[in-house]
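Lecture 7 notes: from sequence to structure.

We start with a single chain of 169 residues. Read the sequence below before looking at the structure.
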Amino acid sequence: MTSSLHITSTSVFNQMLGGLNSVLAKADAHAVAKKIEPNALLQARLFPDMFPLLRQVQVACDFAKSVSARLAGVEVPSFEDTELTIVDLQARIAKTLAFVNSLTPQQFQGSDTREIVTQAGTPKEKRFSGHSYLLNYGLPHFFFHVTTAYSILRHNGVEVGKKDYIGTY
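Now the structure, written as tokens:
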């Protein structure tokens, strides 16, 4: 028997991180073609108080792995934030997807009602059912960071569109 949260979460993370990986490849090619210092794209942001592209990708990966781990009832793996290049970010996406795809449907059994407790950047904890955690917390945060990464690159002239953002499904 498969868990609906397993199918819902892993398929979305695979599709959207796959799209983000392709968008980063286009960004790398764009930087080379336009003779743009790649770090300029990695440090680009939509507004001064927002994270730059580099951090947006890291956080998107963090949400994919942490949401998956919590729903599967396993420890969230720790990834160092050491990426300095687009290739490094693509490697982080690959490592994230390898973890997400290593989780089995059996590990997600009962995850719909499993209690998930978070402390998102504040001392106040939040409690969710697994279903609410995925749909009302995890996926919205994940999509925010993926969308912002895409928007930063589009704003900086990388020729990407909706098909690139959505990825392969």
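Strands lie at 115-118, 126-129. Keep this in mind for problem set 3.
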